[in-house]
Design goal:
Blueprint (H helix, E strand, L loop, with lengths): L2 H17 L3 H31 L3 H8 L2 H9 L10 H17 L3 E9 L3 E8 L7 H16 L5 E4 L24 E6 L9 E5 L2 E8 L2 E6 L13 E3 L2 E3 L6 E3 L15 E2 L1 E4 L2 E5 L5
Helix pairs in contact: 5-6
Length: 283
């Protein structure tokens, strides 16, 4: 076992112990944790400033290439998260329009990304022979893909079966998908109970809602026509889409208007007063 793994196990062990304490005791630990983290952040900021002043940018870049250094700097919000890979951004765009297609018993899937500027998709179900499929492609799917992927200029509908790509764009039977990382989005006191908190992070548009000690996170898109939900009204834990009136339970994501189209949810974890959400990022 490496030293890093030992340190992580030690942190997890202490967190498990503290989780069993009463609230007043945990508050003391959280206060100490905040103070130490604030001190570390100031020290890291001064170190980065000193390296920049001495024109040691290359040394700073080399340090950030280390995954542990990068993880700590990302935790303290001292570096920006990387831009998601093209394949992920294309899939995010497709997921955004998919609820609208499914409401008409249709769907679309990614077939291939042909660099530098072309994406191929395939219509499924009623969309495959719908007379308005050309309009759906140009005004729905193409617009969504270009919004997330400005480098893509052509979106083409084909009849081929999809090709499975790995994260680096190469097909491999040995490719293993890494577990998505936990990303700190906000703090508990910033998440309201009478409304939702809208957060944009690395290409994700999200809403968070708190009910007591539980916090839920969903994609900021109505499952009907993908309209943003953050301006919707919240009453008794139910949010109403401002565009077409679809209603969802914020504790489960269940749609009360059409039970088959629940909100897209993301795992949430709370550590101290910080809210972490598990998102698929290239870290």
């Amino acid at each position: 076992m490496t030293k890093l793994e030992e340190l992580i196990q030690e942190i997890n062990r202490f967190e498990a112990i503290v989780a069993e304490w009463d609230e007043s005791q945990r508050c003391v630990v959280v206060g100490l944790q905040r103070a130490i983290e604030a001190l570390h952040k100031v020290a890291l900021m001064r170190l980065i400033k000193s390296l920049k002043k001495e024109e040691s940018i290359s040394a700073l870049r080399d340090a950030v290439d280390d995954e542990v250094v990068y993880g700590v700097l990302l935790y303290h919000e001292l570096v920006k998260p990387p831009k998601p890979p093209l394949s992920q951004r294309v899939q995010t765009a497709i997921d955004e329009v998919r609820p609208s297609l499914k409401s008409h018993n249709g769907d679309v899937e990614l077939i291939a990304i042909k660099l530098p500027d072309t994406v191929e998709v395939r219509f499924i179900g009623t969309c495959s022979h719908c007379p308005s499929s050309t309009l759906t492609l140009s005004q729905g799917i193409e617009q969504a893909i270009k919004k997330y992927c400005p480098e893509i200029t052509k979106v083409i509908a084909v009849d081929k079966k999809p090709i499975v790509h790995s994260a680096n764009g190469l097909t491999s039977p040995f490719y293993q998908k890494r577990n998505p990382p936990w990303v700190k989005l906000t703090t508990v006191d910033q998440v309201p109970e009478s409304a939702v908190l809208a957060v944009n992070f690395a290409g994700y548009s999200l809403i968070l809602h708190r009910q007591g000690v539980n916090i839920s996170c969903y994609k900021n898109a109505c499952s009907h026509l993908a309209s943003p939900l953050d301006e919707g009204t919240v009453e008794n834990g139910i949010i109403t889409c401002p565009s077409h009136g679809f209603q969802y339970r914020l504790d489960t994501g269940e749609c009360l208007t059409a039970p088959d189209v629940s909100l897209h949810s993301y795992p949430v974890k709370i550590k101290g007063d910080k809210v972490f959400v598990q998102l698929l990022l290239k870290i």
